[in-house]
């Protein structure tokens, strides 16, 4: 692999700058793929874009930029490996997409508002570029090595770099592009569409096996050369349709629930479950002060596992009060250690050897208050929990 360092003035980079939307972004007179297929969408916020231009105007370094040499014979052609956000910020400013605050009054100035000297200052600013020429594998390995500067790629963006093909291009139209169909269900998803989080979620759900293990990389490898990603989209659409049928009343706690995993396990129960009854249960649990993890309610409704709810626990002060009232004795009258103390008396435990227990379980209406608190030795509490 050969690596060459060169400098390019901004004027050269912005020649022929064009944003083709889904087809990518070009510059350097058409010889530079600023946003090649495996790169992320533009994600810099306005303040970051302005900061890039401010650095240029003040002559501050923007950091090293990395390109890959894809030239064939005498046909010069490069693609940006790292530095896309900085280059696009510069090109967008020079072509009039945004302004920056300048002067004592911080008034907005577009590139065309600048004086000739100010324009020349920007146009003549040189970016330091390292250009790599090597095999496809060397390029991707180098890409992973230098992905520590600027805006680090997400795991899914890195996967996209390795599985370029018709399937990925089509999947992005469903899950990644501006105005993609997935936007209709964004209120159920966490993360960012532009950063490939929605795509990652869909693949993770679809690739999860009967043992609960997902393999996103394997799924992408198997489908890389498929003509389209319709199968993945239809699966995702069915998941969302299933959710909306069972829970027609949307609540903000529904955002980020692992709906696909619930669908995989319980999709066949659609005709057996009553949305009206589910709504009553959801409402009841939402109003229950004992339930701390409201998002977990939806998983609990299917498997009845209380761990999803993160139920309220007794405080240290409550535990101390109960300990003093019980004189350090396990409250289970059938405790096997009941007569292990001196002279056959009940064994006395240290407070850290005892565990707080609900006398009446939460599932039967018990509350987390002193009237419903007892301390048990660990053996008795674990034995009770396993019943």
TrEMBL record:
InterPro entries: GmrSD_N, HNH, HNH_nuc. Residues 318-382 form the HNH nuclease domain. This is DUF262 domain-containing protein. It comes from Enterococcus hulanensis.
């Amino acid at each position: 692999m050969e690596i060459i360092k060169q400098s390019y003035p901004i004027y050269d980079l912005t020649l022929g700058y064009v944003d083709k939307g889904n087809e990518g972004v070009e510059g350097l007179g058409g010889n530079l793929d600023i946003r090649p297929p495996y790169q992320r969408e533009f994600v810099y916020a306005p303040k970051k874009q302005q900061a890039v231009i401010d650095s240029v105007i003040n002559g501050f370094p923007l950091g090293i930029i990395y390109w890959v040499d894809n030239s064939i014979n005498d046909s010069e052609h490069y693609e940006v490996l790292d530095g896309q956000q900085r280059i696009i910020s510069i090109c967008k400013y020079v072509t009039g997409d945004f302004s920056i605050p300048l002067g004592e009054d911080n008034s907005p100035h577009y590139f065309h508002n600048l004086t000739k000297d100010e324009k020349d200052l920007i146009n003549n600013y040189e970016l330091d570029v390292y250009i790599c020429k090597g095999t496809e594998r060397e390029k991707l390995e180098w890409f992973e090595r230098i992905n520590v500067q600027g805006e680090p790629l997400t795991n899914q963006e890195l996967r996209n770099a390795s599985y370029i093909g018709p399937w990925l291009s089509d999947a992005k139209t469903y899950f990644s592009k501006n105005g993609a169909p997935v936007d209709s269900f964004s209120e159920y998803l966490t993360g960012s569409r532009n950063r490939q989080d929605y795509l990652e979620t869909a693949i993770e759900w679809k690739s999860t096996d009967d043992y609960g293990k997902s393999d996103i990389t394997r799924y992408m490898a198997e489908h890389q050369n498929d003509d389209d990603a319709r199968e993945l989209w239809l699966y995702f659409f069915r998941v969302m349709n299933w959710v909306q049928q069972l829970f027609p009343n949307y609540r903000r706690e529904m955002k980020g629930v692992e709906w696909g995993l619930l669908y995989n396990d319980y999709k066949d129960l659609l005709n057996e479950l009553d949305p009206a009854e589910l709504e009553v249960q959801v409402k009841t649990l939402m109003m229950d002060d004992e339930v701390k993890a409201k998002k977990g309610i939806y998983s609990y409704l299917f498997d009845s596992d209380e761990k999803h709810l993160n139920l309220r626990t007794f405080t240290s002060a409550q535990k101390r009060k109960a300990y003093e009232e019980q004189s350090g004795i396990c409250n289970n009258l059938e405790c096997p250690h009941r007569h292990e103390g001196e002279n056959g008396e009940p064994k006395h435990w240290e407070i850290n050897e005892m565990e707080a227990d609900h006398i009446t379980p939460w599932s039967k209406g018990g509350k987390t208050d002193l009237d419903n608190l007892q301390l048990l030795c660990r053996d008795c509490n674990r034995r009770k929990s396993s019943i």
